[in-house]
Write a structure and sequence with these properties.
Layout lengths: L3 E6 L8 E7 L3 H12 L24 E9 L3 E8 L6 E5 L4 E6 L3 E2 L13 E10 L2 E8 L3 E9 L7 E9 L2 H7 L3 H5 L5 H9 L10 E6 L16 H18 L4 E4 L9 H10 L4 E8 L11 E6 L6 H10 L2 H4 L18 H24 L2 E9 L11 E8 L3 H7 L2 H23 L14
Bound molecules: zinc ion (ZN).
Amino acid sequence: MAAHAVRAEAEGSAGRPVRAAFGRATGALWACLLLVAAVAPAPLRAETAAPATAAKPAPGQPAQALDARLAGDDQRTRMIIDLSRTVEFRAFTLANPNRVILDLPDVVFSLPQAASTGRRGLVAAYRYGAFAPGKARMVLDLAEPVAIDKAFVLEAADGQPARLVLDLVKGDAASFAASVATAAEARGAPAPLAASAAHAHGTVPDTDPRPMIVVDPGHGGIDSGTTGASAYSEKNIVLDVALALKTRLEAGGRYRVVLTRSTDIFVPLSERVRIARANRAALFISIHADALASNDGQARGASVYTLSDTASDSEAARLAESENRADLIAGIDLSEESDEVAGILFDLAQRETKNFSATFARTLVGAMKAAGKVHKSALKSAGFKVLKAHDVPSVLVEIGYMSSREDLKLMTSEAWRDKLAQSMGEAVDGFFTPRTAGITGSVPDAPSGR
Ligand SMILES: [Zn+2]
């Protein structure tokens, strides 16, 4: 048996972020006890183990999560994640709705397809995936308030892989509320998302007169978006479309293009808006795919949405609510969101931006109509958070319904995606042509003169 043991510190009902450290036990005794703890939820306090020394992560490859499972009942529930090697992690709670978050380093999730993420004991559901550069996350939705009783990592031993073990015990609403991590704790020390994303995407110096277009593939990482009960994820389809659109837009050399994400990574909604503003975008295009529940009938075709305080119809309201859940799904603390947008809704800049957004939305529907299927009422509006840059004309395109077999067949075809990107590119050309035709010097930040 390996002489390594693992220590968890600062855990318990206080529920503040739990930091796991890894120690070298003086003998096999603690490893044995910890192994027992992993098999049966026993009230063992792992932090009384031998003093910890700094963990030495294996160089090179990121750790892999090989399997995950829930055990226990509605009094005590255990999450076990099998790992290719030990990792450091943090566990903390978030409210509204009640969640437990496990923050991990660059762990790649390779769970078996059959791994159930459904309800068990105190956990209603869970999901996992990339969260930020070098960070992965698991989010557990809670069926009831809990306390984090234990959280630790075990070294591989006796033919068992390394494991992360999280023990939750039934709690009450008051102590859960008291345990909730502060916003700063929830973000974690080294990872201001804004900073890392800004670094990844850069902020372009404003000497280039060409219009900047920010293309925003929806969802990503831990947030898969919808599936429409298919084997595909919205996040992958819309990334492919965004990459095709970027290629189309850059081909003519007329535009600069920035993607809010170019890999399978989670980007908060507010960060997408920030990227558009930081790059002084002349246009922001968010790309999504819709799906209807199986008992909600059939619908096909693309739709284009703009921002409005009141949804144009109940369908648009339903969609905005579902798209706005992205941050919550990824375990972001929504209470820390600033209300920066509220005060500027009636700003003149906002009104002008709205007009540009509406103009582009109409142009886009026209171009996509020529290229293929659009929804019978293709122009709609609702309160999408991602469209709230008050000085950037912004639209959100739902390229079709993943719940429609015909639409899904198109979306998963590279030829169709290229055709779609082509028509979207034509709409962008149409939007900017009157403006760029007479250009001799610099271009204003937002389209004007239309
Ligand atoms: Zn979406």
